[in-house]
Design brief:
Helix content is about 20%, strand content about 25%. By secondary structure, the protein is α+β, with helices and mostly antiparallel strands. The strands form 4 sheets. Strands 4, 5, 8 and 11 form a 4-stranded antiparallel beta sheet that branches. The chain has a 3-stranded antiparallel beta sheet with strand order 1-9-10. It is globular. Mean pLDDT is about 85; it is low at about 1-10.
Length: about 170
């Protein structure tokens, strides 16, 4: 390694790490989770009826899948109070489907031995973001994202709880 490069690397003063909440990262993380866990098309060898072998419901035609906050309301009438507070994933997903003039449905997940089925999603996903140096474009970028694991999405007030939904033809 060139001596000047080594000294430049060791002389760098990394930014102090702290977690920040970034809504766009939180939404993107939830959407990526739902899209990865709930495929539209899957190999027959990975299918168990209407679910993947690891218990995630398959997306119905036309294959529109996404994540919505459990308190999502498509056409809010006010920003003074949360019209979607404490609503279920089923209601939030109904709102999701309206955006495409379709029926929005909550995707499901089998837990335990498969006899228990819950709404699929990520709860308490207040995605805590840590920044890192972007050596390609320069400046800071998202370097890590942390949060709680899934199955908390039906537990509290719904501000940081995301439901996996799919929109199906009426």
């Amino acid at each position: 390694m060139a001596p000047w490069l080594a000294s430049a690397v060791w002389a760098a003063d990394p930014p102090a790490q702290s977690f920040t909440f970034e809504p766009a990262v939180t939404g993107a993380t939830a959407a990526a989770y739902c899209m990865a866990k709930h495929p539209y098309q899957i190999l027959d060898s990975q299918r168990a009826g209407l679910y993947t072998k690891d218990g995630y419901e398959l997306v119905a035609s036309p294959g529109v899948v996404g994540a919505v906050r459990r308190n999502f309301v498509l056409d809010r009438s006010t920003d003074q109070q949360d019209e979607g507070a404490n609503q279920s994933c089923a209601r939030a997903c109904t709102q999701f489907g309206k955006a495409w003039n379709m029926v929005g449905k909550s995707l499901r997940q089998k837990v335990g031995d498969g006899s228990v089925i819950i709404p699929s999603g990520l709860g308490d996903l207040g995605a805590l973001v840590m920044n890192d140096q972007d050596f390609y474009l320069g400046g800071q970028t998202v370097g890590a994202v942390g949060s709680r694991g899934n199955t908390w999405q039906s537990s509290d007030v719904a501000q940081a709880d995301y439901c996996c939904c799919h929109a199906v033809s009426q």
